[in-house]
Amino acid sequence: MTEDLSWLPDLFVAGVPKAGTSSVHRWIADHPGALGSAEKETCFFADTDSHIYRPGANVRGGWAAYRPQFALPEGPRPRVIFESTPSYIYQRTALDEIPSLPGTPRCLFILREPADQIRSIYRYFRNNWTFIPAEMSFAAYLDAIRAGSHDFGGNELAQDALRNARYLPHLQAWRERLGTERMMVRSFDALRADPRGLMREVASWAGLDPAFYDDYDFPSENETYVPRSRALHRLNVAVRARLPRGAIYRSLRGLYRGLNTESGRTAGQPDAEEAETLAALRASFAADNLALARAFDLDLPGWAMPPADQPASTVP
Predict the structure, then answer these.
(1) Cα separation of 27 and 241, whole Å?
(2) Among 64, 182, 253, 307, which lies 20 to 30 A Cα-Cα from 290?
(3) Which neighbouring-strand residues pair with 226?
(4) Where's the Sulfotransferase domain (predicted)?
(5) Which residues of 79-94 are buried (b: 16+ CB within 10 A; e: fewer)?
(6) Rounded to a whole number, what is the largest CA-CA distance in the chain?
(7) DSSP 3-state assignment of 63?
(8) Measured on CA atoms in the order 79, 83, 84, 85, is the torsion positive or negative?
(9) Residues 287, 289, 294, 297: what is their CA dihedral angle, to the nearest 10 degrees?
């Protein structure tokens, strides 16, 4: 008997980290025609050498561990079943497996301006986690990446942030497997400027009724925060790594954030030195961004585009 795989996702939000994918996941999951995975990031198609790899819940072990992520309701199948693991854009296993799944799923990629994305990676893994040392400045972090002098706790997203922000090679590899119809690439800028317009576009492309978003309120999810006490933060990271995801986890997370965090929006403005570092980093990606815009017909204002006749370069 052929195994029933009709519950497998029709849609993957497959990239990139720190580009609003948690909010997008929530916005799609709130649509009455969609069913999101129990965990936003299942990491089921992760590489074995990735820090997000879960030995007991990976495609190499079969579908049994993936099926509980999708609790289908009684009655007709939802129009769209989906999950959102933004690291998939960099995972070889995801690239090998997802395009050939039954049902020919689609993949959505949301890109953030590289310098801003790298800084957000830095702040997230420094403030929300402990992969990047609290005493390490942004400039020192970039120097450590270039020198390969720090393993950042085995977190390859932190280690490879400069290379990962060269989006074009990754997206070209996905386009070769998916084709153009099953792939959508949009920017974080567009998401922030017009979330309603973007989500109506995503819904239509994915097979959902776009009218749902006409009066939707677009709540935010998974914003970077800044801990008030680093000692309490280290304890929080150690404890939450051992807790199963669910109501208790969410309740304790809310309690902790109320006690020991402040919004990254208000506490994370760059000082003069960091702003200078950001400007230099942004300029170093300019030619790559131009090639990206041309290859995927994207409007990327503010991504430090060089003149049209300037040759493409690689990121340091």
Answers:
(1) 26
(2) 182
(3) 262
(4) 9-209
(5) bbbbbbbbbbbbbebb
(6) 65
(7) coil
(8) negative
(9) -170
Tell me the Ramachandran region of residue 271: left when phi exceeds 0, alpha when psi lies from -120 to 50, beta otherwise: beta
**β-strands 225-227, 261-263 pairing:** antiparallel
The position carrying tokens 């509980």 is 68
Nearest by Cα to 188 from 144, 220, 155: 220
Using CB atoms within 10 Å of the CB of residue 240, give its burial: 0 to 12 exposed, 13 to 18 middle, 19+ buried: middle
Q: What residues are paired with 12 via a beta bridge?
A: 83, 107
pLDDT in tens, the chain (316 residues): 578 999 999 999 999 999 999 999 999 999 999 999 999 999 999 999 999 999 999 999 999 999 999 999 999 999 999 999 999 999 999 999 999 999 999 999 999 999 999 999 999 999 999 999 999 999 999 999 999 999 999 999 999 999 999 999 999 999 999 999 999 999 999 999 999 999 999 999 999 999 999 999 999 876 555 566 656 655 665 565 566 655 565 566 556 556 666 655 555 688 999 999 999 999 999 999 999 999 999 999 889 765 554 444 433 3
Rg (CA), the chain: 20
Place of tokens 């006749």: 309
**Host H or E run for residue 186:** strand 183-187
Pairwise CA distance, residues 56 & 245, whole Å: 15
> Strands, E, within 116-272: which ranges?
183-187, 225-227, 261-263
Domains and CATH numbers, the chain: 11-296 (3.40.50.300)
pTM of the model: 0.85
User: Cα–Cα distance between 19 and 116 in angstroms, integer?
Assistant: 9
Tally of CA atoms within 13 A in the half-sphere of 213 that contains its CB = 21
CA distance 173 to 128: 31
